[in-house]
Amino acid sequence: MNKNSVKEIGRTGVRIPALCFGTSSLGNMPETYTYEVDEVRAIDTVKTILNSELPFLDCSRNYGMGRSEERIGMAIRELGGLPEQAIVSTKLDRDMDTLVLDASRARRSLEESLEALGISHIDILHLHDPEPAESVSAITRPGGALDELFKMRDEGICKVVGLAAGDIDVMLPILREREFDIVITHNRHTLVNANAEPLIEHCHQNNIAVMNAAPYCGGALAKGTADFSRYVYQEATDAVMAPLRAVEEICKKYDIPPGAAALQYSVNDHRIHSTICGVSKPDRIQQTLDWANFPIPDAAWSELNELPRESSDPEASRVYNPG
Q1: How many C-beta neighbours within 10 Å does residue 254 have?
Q2: Which end of the chain lies in a sparser environment, N or C, as judged by fewer CB atoms within 10 Å?
């Protein structure tokens, strides 16, 4: 990967690097990630990202019930402000108690994010997870949360508007009705799953930028399945883990870190503008950069690309807990 590789988002004038760092685990979500992240570690991680050659953060109001953005804001203040070259992406989130995501809630979500982060505007702003909200129609109807999102761009509060979600059957109709600049998909474009392929191809054909998150399948291809028998944040059976172990076998044959192959599978896809990698401690930033540039021979890619990929939704049965 060319570390200086950047792509423009449509005609917005905003250019983003090939790698972005996700911050959900920095909000301390042990039920999702199986480990704790304290405030000091989270702040040190954010400062390392913002001082790196790729200071691109993706966050959300609901990660850790607000803790992630609060800790990012603390790091920004300790640095004396957001570095000039930094890019921040965040999301309009539903009320986690009522599940409401209407225009009023969208506005409150934005205000809460700006206050927590300590900044006055957002580079990239997504509407987040319409699937579990109280009503998708309440989001998409005239005067709803989507109209509010585009209004925020008109007001100059954000430069780029996007849709960040999982279920492509929910996402595609919304994308066809609105002129979005960007989307986020997660866990659905990996070495073992191709569920997002119709979504990615639609975006490619319609000049919508794509950010692909969670290339490691929730951590298994980064940590190793021998020590981490979970897939997309859930305990997994041997049958579910078998495709990931097949990836590991090929990587072992060619002496490749499985995390490097998983990451480059996304980074090297010309349809992907940026790949979002979750990190939870400072040394993971350099490891991510190293994996992005790790030499992988063509013979290894030939074998990896011959592996079957599941097309069903990998998170169909997942119960999300943001706490």
Answers
A1: 15
A2: C
